Amino acid sequence: MAARLVRRCCWRHWGAFVSPAARGRPRQVPLGPVPTARVLPLASFHPSSPWSRADGFSVQEQVEEGRNPEHRVIGELIETAASPRELFQLSELHPLNSNQASLVITRLSRLAAEQKLDARSILQDRRFQQLLSLTDSQISQVWNNTLVNLLKSLYSLGVDSSRPEMQSVEQEVLWRLRRLSFRQLASLAEFLALRQGKESKLLAEVIKKLELRWTELEGTRTVVMLMGKVGNISPALMDRLEDKALELAEQFSPDDIRRITLALAYQNRRCVPLLRALSYHLSQKHGELGRAVLTDLIFAYGKLNFHQPQVFQKIAGDLQPHVASMTPAEVTRCVRSFALLKWLSLPLCEAVAQYALDNTKQLSVTHLCGIILAFARLNFQPSSSEDFFTMVHEKLQGQLESLEPGPVTELVWSLCVLQQAKAPYLQRVLAPDFHAQLRGEVGDPLPAGRGLNTPQLGQGRGDAEPAPSERVHGWLGRRGSVSADLPSGGSLDFGVSPPLRTDAELVLNSENKPLPVKDFAAPHLLHSEGTKPLPPGARR
């Protein structure tokens, strides 16, 4: 690498002093005295060595292209072509070099995407095959920026990856990765992440280069793009991007902040310093934020469990006027995010309750359950409580049977918190067959996320139900360890079957000494053996 750098510097330094005639023959040593001439600008000198030709789409290349009138005219014709037919005619009328052929292929791909053309007809055209062969035969002379766009275009057109021309382009890009600019690497990484995913070998090499050259990263747009599209593939790169985003936090627009927080939320990266910086600058920005920005921000904060009261107050205040125009899914998502954060905004919750009353027909049972669950977590009672819960009971009438056990349990728990549970709801969740289905003892296996205990209800997360053998062994182990520490005589009952998962039941007096469980009434069970009430100070 050092030797190549020295050769390039020497070549350019010597080329600045040669005469125009000698520049066309770089290998010929001029005879006789060399006349003194003005030093030419470096950008006007175009060496013909391979390493200089592949330096990228630089100022030097643009100047050289602009100095050739024919090349400039052909480039303009390629850019202004409105159909594949015009491009193919251009390739027949003018002798093209490999760089121009690559530009034609790139333009063909763009036209196919814009006009929704059939890519197969383009690939099967004889003239396209000629363009591809010309590019392959002189691939080393294609400029860097054109080469990157060529690779994207071939992927977009659906060229078979096993074709020699395709493999040649991929290999050439792989060889030139060190000479690509950071922006070209970022653009290529974004494209490959969307097209090929984590399995792409070329993407892995591009990410390695990005990790090594992250100090070259400039501009908010590239940071936001890499965090959203590539950060989930490389945790090491994401660490660097978070540091850079913290440095540029003041320059981000509200939409940039939205995209960054969403990227952090989807990747479960709770970077507190970055979130604090973004929240501070967001709260300092005057003016009303858009609805999409508001809903995505509160969703990201809820998913990351990040609390920032000033931002919550701003989001709730800006979001309230938009509630009436939101969809049921957006309303449910928004209010549940506030519930996860346990942030109660009375005007916003009142607006949500009024939205539910005004849009009863558009609300599905699932959306309504989400709103009730959020109100329960916030312990919020609407001002029009009677009308609201009358609508809820009418909407839920006859619908409990169609819901899965998990959502039904969450719904009834929420109604109990709101003091709105009626007999049909309790009868449904207290039925023995419902218990068996909830515990996964009969019927189909319980899906992952069911069997949540009270603190987990409505949080949208839960560990998968363990396998039956693992559950039995774990329960037996806990039973043995607990029994060994307690005296015998009926102080521990393992036959408990309440709605929530419980391994055993214990009654303690005011001095924390165990009492016989079966002697006392158990209103939480379907059948209670005891009749005595609990003594004062005792607890179950």
UniProtKB/TrEMBL annotation:
<feature type="region of interest" description="Disordered">
    <location>
        <begin position="517"/>
        <end position="540"/>
    </location>
</feature>
<dbReference type="GO" id="GO:0000963">
    <property type="term" value="P:mitochondrial RNA processing"/>
</dbReference>
<dbReference type="GO" id="GO:0003723">
    <property type="term" value="F:RNA binding"/>
</dbReference>
<feature type="domain" description="FAST kinase leucine-rich">
    <location>
        <begin position="368"/>
        <end position="438"/>
    </location>
</feature>
<feature type="compositionally biased region" description="Basic and acidic residues">
    <location>
        <begin position="462"/>
        <end position="472"/>
    </location>
</feature>
<dbReference type="InterPro" id="IPR050870">
    <property type="entry name" value="FAST_kinase"/>
</dbReference>
<dbReference type="GO" id="GO:0044528">
    <property type="term" value="P:regulation of mitochondrial mRNA stability"/>
</dbReference>
<feature type="region of interest" description="Disordered">
    <location>
        <begin position="441"/>
        <end position="472"/>
    </location>
</feature>
<dbReference type="GO" id="GO:0035770">
    <property type="term" value="C:ribonucleoprotein granule"/>
</dbReference>
<dbReference type="InterPro" id="IPR010622">
    <property type="entry name" value="FAST_Leu-rich"/>
</dbReference>
<dbReference type="Pfam" id="PF06743">
    <property type="entry name" value="FAST_1"/>
</dbReference>
<protein>
    <submittedName>
        <fullName>FAKD4 protein</fullName>
    </submittedName>
</protein>
<dbReference type="GO" id="GO:0005759">
    <property type="term" value="C:mitochondrial matrix"/>
</dbReference>
